[in-house]
Amino acid sequence: MIGSLLRRVRFWLSGWFRPAPPARYALAYVDSDELPSVIPDRTVVVAREAGELWSAGLICPCGCGRRIELMLLPKVKPRWDIRESQNERPTLWPSIWANDGCRSHFWLRDGMVEWCKD
Amino acid sequence: MEQTLTSPNAAHANVVDVAGTDLVFRPVPVTDRTPTARQVLAAMNLAPHDEYVVLQWLPGRDIEEVRPEELVDMSDATTSKLIIAKSDRTYRLMLNDHALEWPEAEITEEALRILGAIDASLQIFLTRDDEADRLLEPGDKVNLRAEGVETLYAKSKEWKLNVQGVVIESDAPEIVVRDAIAKAGFDVETKWIIILKTATERKQVDLNYVIDLREPGIEKLRLTPREINNGEVSAGFRRDFALLPADHARLDEHGYDWIAMIENGRRWLILRNVHLPAGYNLSVATIAMEVPSAYPMAEIDMFYCSPHLARLDGHMIPQTQVNESIGGRTFQRWSRHRGALAPWVPGKDSVVTHLLLIEESLNREVDK
Ligand SMILES: [Zn+2]
Question: What is the pTM (predicted TM-score) of this model?
Fold first, then answer.
């Protein structure tokens, strides 16, 4: 907790403007092998077809607005695991790292964004 | 019974090709240059005549019935063909804009190919009003009993592929992924995660993969931009091995932040952010236990804490002198064993009962 606070302060000091992290991400499913064209804010949308998980989509928590799609299908590289906690909040594993643009790197645990220092 | 013309002196100069509905034609000699349908039936010993239908097919043209006293058109003797079948009626159909009569209530796909001179590169479709036209597969039959005239047509095969929602057609039964993506209007230079989805499998493919479009159903190429990478894998919820479903459920239920990690062949269950009873130098620690590969038949023994725990009152904690390195961190081994009074009972003891033992051990040390 202290660590993440310090990190936020550090971002400020280094001129990285990042809005306050959004409230917790919720979890929603669509019955398709593809994500919908619009992904609601603060929501991880999972494309699920006939019980098969295809991918998870979310809008980048840094505020840049980019759409992030993470494959959940087995044997695909790269791929992620998703877990739904009791309160229906998403946890993704491993961390999510944009290799261009905002270069956000974060964990999503129990719907909460935890920034990684890179 | 009509008189059959079998006289050796009869002129056999004229021949008509005759087939049944199998369309296997064989030559039948006839005496007359302009025979009637009845004369052909007579030449073939087929009687009574009114139980037979005689159809004339001029390949590439229509098929028409020839009435018993009507003359068979011999003007194009090399291609004039008769189809004769025992039937009391004919059925009408349209094939590629030709009007055909057929003596049976069903016609095979094979017969349609012969009658329409439709080669294997073409597919035959039956026109339907309220639904998609029906593709005839080899061996299929079209029922001609329905009211109205069935209409059939042939067209070249289309090999279809859905590329991220855009359906493209290929002239060939195989297509390279790169070409399919370009044809659908997506940028080939973008780094994509490409999944080929067929009726039977989902497979990650690259730009050079050749897709076979002959499988039933329309294959799909599903594209995802490869912009996001996996980050750290050392933390998060790592599941190198499976616990018992009941263990997994109980740990989640109690809100434990846990990972299951295999390191050097040893299986570790690691619980992070475990609250400790008052009296220790820390309020929160990471606790590990080794889950033997024969678990739950084999017992879980001892447990491990990181960082090192110490009593605030300065008293030594017995049997905690050995260190163990787990996942690059040093853990303090607590040598706590079950003993003869409370032995491990397979089927009853588990990760969850071992956690109770850990809790009790941690409490007992600061209760003194
Ligand atoms: Zn971003």
Answer: 0.46
